[in-house]
Amino acid sequence: MRQYLRLMLLVIAVISISGCGYNAIQQKDEAVKAGWSEVVNQYKRRADLIPNLVNTVQGYAQQERQVLTEVTNARAKVGQIQVNADDADSLKQFQQAQGELGSALSRLLVVSENYPTLKSDQNFRDLQAQLEGTENRITVARGRYIQLVQDYNTYIRSFPQVITAKMFGYAAKPNFTVDNEAQIAQPPTVSFGTQPAAPQQTPPQPAPAQ
Q1: Per the record, where are the segments of Pro residues compositional bias (predicted)?
Q2: Is the pTM for the entire model greater than 0.85?
């Protein structure tokens, strides 16, 4: 019993001298939460663009029902997920659903290349531009979140903060894995219908007169 008390006193003394890091843990935890909110916000922004995009494409390419259905179903699946960023399985499920939605959007934009009238529609072009900007924002928000989680995890695993973290129940947070990143490393390509010009063929030169 005396040894236990001595150990506790020693731990308290070390924490008092070195600083327990409790306030810093609070700050870093709140930063992670704010970073996650921004990730969710940008993914929601993308999901909100999809109904108008699908309706616009459908107006010019009703026969592409399979692709349109895939996008609609993928968006619905994303909306049904109740993600908990502190749970690794929940985060993985969320990111997988977002990856499937991104793939479906890519296929939809590829299909649009077959319809010149659709590509020239101003509403469609505006939606493409908004989608491109949203994909960039998703990449930035996700990258910042990864850094915030890494910073938080490194901090609470360091001494003496690790003692404080265990005392108050702060555990390491899951992060986007390499597999998650591979799914979204290639965001939907936004094209405005400009095709590269075909290389010009050099006309044959007449043979020199004999």
Answers
A1: 201-210
A2: no
pLDDT tens digits along 46-66? 999 999 999 999 999 888 999
User: Cα(first)–Cα(last) distance of the chain, in Å?
Assistant: 115
What does the angle CA 143 – CA 146 – CA 151 come to, to the nearest 5 degrees?
A: 130
> Is 174:168 a contact under the CB 8 Å cutoff?
no
Q: How far is Cα 115 from Cα 62, in angstroms, rounded to an integer? A: 11
Helix residue ranges per DSSP H, 61-197: 65-80, 88-112, 116-119, 122-156, 161-167, 178-184
| 40 CB burial (10 A radius; 0-12, 13-18, 19+) | middle
Domains plus CATH for the chain? 17-184 (1.20.1440.20)
Rounded Cα distance, 162 and 34, in Å: 23
**CA neighbor of 84 nearest in space, from 72, 75, 93, 73:** 93
